[in-house]
Amino acid sequence: MSISKPKSQPKLLDQVREAIRVRHYSIRTEQAYLGWIKRFIFFHGKRHPGDMGKAEISAFLTHLAISGNVAASTQNQALNAIMFLYREVLKQDVGWLDEVERAKKPSRLPVVFTPNKARRVLALLPKDKGLMASLLYGSGLRLMECVRLRVKDMDFHYRQITVRDGKGRKDRVTVLPKKLVEPLQVQLETVKSLHQQDLKEGYGAVYLPYALEKKYPNANREFGWQYVFPASKRAIDPRSRVERRHHLSETALQQAVKNAIRKAGINKPGSCHTFRHSFATHLLENGYDIRTIQELLGHKDVNTTMIYTHVLERGGRGVRSPLDDSG
């Protein structure tokens, strides 16, 4: 009588990958967490994390800060990845992880364009990138919220955009600028034509979040679920290995905005996110209350939104210099 061998346990990184996907984390979070966990293991000579603890984690984070010279946000992302490994994969009671000191982010005021400079940058962008950047400025969208927009979330009648699964995995509604209604409708006609061509060629099924693909098996081919800004070519999905059309790469918009800022002769370290900062600041300048702006931006805490009130203070907390009062 033969005795069946017990099934071997999946490799540690495969366990991490499975735990991440069960919790519906994004592909970017998966890639980042796996990368940090690998670096942590290799830093300690390929020791198994189960044999390590607080001292080894602190040593790794210190190495990142001193030798790696990484930003506070990067160091904290590494800690989040390691915390996920111990709590969700190794299932260890690691209350001591809460005692590991997190790097403090430096307090900086956001870079903001004046309305005139914002328009100058937008005018220098190619047509499709200009439309996307206009949504960042006109609706206060984050970069990834913009590239992930779906057709069904555009409401032209009420002139509003529903942002699905934004930061903090929350939905919110923001304004759709009147000036963008016609250009967006033209864009959707282009998307529809592209989608119909994909369907004719046996494709046209877009990625659906979470379990929606199982719950609504035909929804991924519907026009409403297509991306407002699709990629020019189809590609293989890294998780499902299915060929489909994804959204436009965010790096394409980032590079276009950087080039436009440079062409406009603006000597500020601006980026795509500068348009979102400008959206909030200009609304404040126009008299809108802080709570309304908080809701439009999707901030959990109003204190996050309050930083834009500091941007408005002219001459250092609104003080008039005595030199300006001299004759």
Helical coverage, percent range: 40-55%
- Report strand %: under 5%
Number of domains: 2
The CATH topology of the largest domain comes to hpI Integrase, Chain A
Q: What name goes with the CATH superfamily of the largest domain?
A: Intergrase catalytic core
**Widest beta sheet: strand line-up:** 1-2-3
> Quick one: biggest sheet?
3 strands, antiparallel
Mean pLDDT: 87
Q: What CATH architecture of the largest domain do you see?
A: Orthogonal Bundle
Please report the distance between the alpha carbons of the first and last residues: 106 Å
What does this structure look like?
The protein has 327 residues and is mainly alpha-helical. The protein folds into two domains: 12-99, DNA polymerase, domain 1, CATH 1.10.150.130; 115-311, Intergrase catalytic core (hpI Integrase, Chain A, Orthogonal Bundle). It is 49% helix and 4% strand. Strand 2 (160-163) and strand 3 form a beta hairpin.
What topology does this entry show?
Elements: H1 12-22, H2 27-43, H3 54-66, H4 72-89, H5 115-123, H6 127-139, H7 143-147, E1 154-155, E2 160-163, E3 172-175, H8 181-200, H9 212-215, E4 235-236, E5 243-244, H10 250-263, H11 272-285, H12 290-297, H13 302-305, H14 307-312, H15 322-325
Antiparallel strand pairs: 1-2, 2-3, 4-5
Which keywords apply here?
327 residues; mainly alpha; DNA polymerase, domain 1; hpI Integrase, Chain A; 2 domains; 3-stranded antiparallel beta sheet; two-stranded antiparallel sheet; 15 helices; 49% helix; disordered N terminus
